[in-house]
Write a structure and sequence with these properties.
Layout (H helix, E strand, L loop, with lengths): L1 E10 L3 H12 L4 E4 L11 E4 L2 E4 L4 E2 L4 H9 L4 E3 L5 E5 L5 E4 L8 H21 L10 H5 L3 H8 L3 H16 L8 H10 L3 H4 L2 H4 L2 E3 L4 H11 L3 E2 L4 E7 L2 E6 L3 E10 L10 E3 L4 H7 L2 E3 L2 E8 L3 H4 L2 E7 L6 E4 L8 E8 H7 L4 H16 L8 E6 L12 E3 L3 H5 L10 E3 L12 H21 L1
Parallel strand pairs: 1-2, 1-13, 2-10, 7-17, 11-14, 13-22
Antiparallel strand pairs: 3-4, 5-9, 6-9, 7-8, 11-12, 12-13, 15-21, 16-19, 16-20, 17-18, 18-19
Length: about 450
């Protein structure tokens, strides 16, 4: 058995864990990073699929992702803007196809006004609730007790307006049906992105990509840490006390440290045996946090043919199995790439099909968005994070009804020498790479500050 002694051991080599390790190193502390996978990056993964570079995991940066943008620049990486020139496409429930320009889905004037009214209402509430401590809002318990779908019904009798507003949280972000999470959880999602307007603006939320792929952020951080990053080392057991921790991982690896940072999503804590067990409240809390379910489908073509038709590649549908699509062509590439998203109950239906049927269903939908040329890509790939052993869902973990006010106020608190850092626990940047980086920085700063008091 290899026994290592360090000041801090970090479990998870995604953006959060590697940021924490890097910041701790800068402060003069020794670290060891243990990663279950054979790669770094966590939920960011830039893959080579049939000679096509595909962002299998998280990929986009928004203007408010200031921590991530700063780190990208610090690492010497560059970004490029998503292609968005031309008209977008909306596939209506009645089967009609409409091309449009701007952020709002095509709708009658009265419905468009109702959508704008609801978004303005949500903007005001999100600003009140805030990103960092929504459970502290005076109306938190009330807002956390009602499903977002029911809350919307109480605000408007316009079904189309409700479904449109719900889409940006349920389908596009939390990837859960709107009846399964609370209005408070929806408001937190919006506040974490700056506003509901920002959340509903695809040119804001899906603004830029990293040239060469988002996984490079983790790869460059890991390279600076060198041999202190251990791959293929799933953590199985953590012994802890006020005196420190001993972490046991596959490969007969044992790390003794003063502190441990768990930089993995909360649903994976149960894969670790804690000695002594975690406090009962934390065990209970993690049973009320769960991933959503979304599949990214990638289609690569010889050319970005949709651009010649005056299309941006952006498309939306409330009812089609692929609910949103975007031009995902890589920087400087001659070919064209599209990415689509299949979320929550539609993803359930998608995986009830066999592989060939799934591919045809997805491509048939792309044909409705873009035209017959979309039927025959040179590369087709599914990013199914629900089947990933060390993730088990996408994009991130959120609370069930009532969970945020019941547990949120202490879900980031350390337990003895154990600290927690991941995008799922973030305020600003919640569920994004930006939130992961912010949490890594915050946990590292807290550890350094505590040590300076000793």
């Amino acid at each position: 058995m290899a026994v290592i002694s360090r000041d801090v051991v970090i479990v998870g080599a995604g953006p959060s864990g590697l940021t924490a390790a890097t910041e701790l190193r800068k402060s003069g502390l020794t670290v060891a990073v243990l990663e279950a996978r054979d790669r770094v990056g966590g939920r960011t993964w830039t893959g080579d699929i049939d000679n096509a570079m595909i962002e299998i995991g998280g990929q986009w940066l928004s203007p408010h992702h200031t921590a991530a943008l700063a780190l990208v620049r610090e690492l010497g990486l560059e970004t490029f803007s998503r292609y968005r020139d031309g008209e977008s496409v909306y596939l209506a429930a009645d089967g009609t196809r409409q091309q449009f320009v701007g952020e709002g889905f095509p709708a009658p004037a009265e419905t468009a006004a109702e959508i704008n009214r609801l978004i303005a209402l949500l903007d005001d509430l999100a600003a009140e609730v805030g990103a960092e401590a929504p459970w502290a809002h005076p109306r938190a318990a009330e807002l956390d007790s009602v499903p977002f779908s029911i809350w919307l019904e109480r605000q408007s009798d316009n079904e189309y307006a409700r479904e449109t507003v719900s889409f940006f949280v349920a389908g596009a972000m939390l990837t859960k049906p709107a009846h399964t999470f609370s209005a408070l959880q929806a408001l937190h999602m919006a506040a974490a992105q700056g506003s509901y307007t920002a959340l509903a603006t695809d040119t804001f939320m899906l603004d830029k990509r990293v040239i060469g792929g988002m996984q490079q952020v983790s790869q460059r951080l890991a390279a600076s840490l060198g041999a202190d990053v251990h791959l293929g080392a799933p953590v199985r057991r953590v012994q802890w006390s006020d005196a420190g921790v001993t972490v046991f991982a596959d490969g007969d690896l044992e790390v003794r440290a003063d502190r441990v940072v768990l930089a993995v999503p909360p649903n994976l804590y149960s894969a670790i045996s804690f000695d002594p067990p975690l406090p009962r409240r934390r065990h209970q809390m993690y049973q009320h946090m769960s991933f959503g379910f979304v599949v990214k489908v990638h289609a690569v073509y010889d050319t970005p043919f949709w651009r010649e038709k005056g299309l941006s590649g952006t498309g939306f549908s409330d009812t089609d199995i692929v609910s949103e699509v975007y031009d995902n062509t890589n920087h400087g590439a001659d070919n064209g790439a599209m990415v689509g998203f299949i979320a929550h109950e539609q993803a359930d239906a998608y995986f009830a099909m066999g592989p060939a049927e799934r591919k045809r269903a997805a491509l048939d939908c792309l044909v409705r968005y873009l035209g017959p040329e979309a039927a025959d890509p040179v590369v087709f790939y599914e990013s199914d994070w629900g089947s990933e052993e060390w993730t088990r869902g996408a994009y991130g973990v959120s609370f069930d009804l009532g969970g945020m006010t019941r547990y949120g106020h202490d879900h980031r608190d350390p337990i003895g020498p154990m600290h927690f850092a991941c995008s799922d626990l973030a305020g600003h940047g919640f569920q994004h790479v930006d939130g992961a980086i912010r949490m890594g920085q915050a946990v590292a700063a807290a550890i350094v500050a505590q040590r300076s008091l000793v």
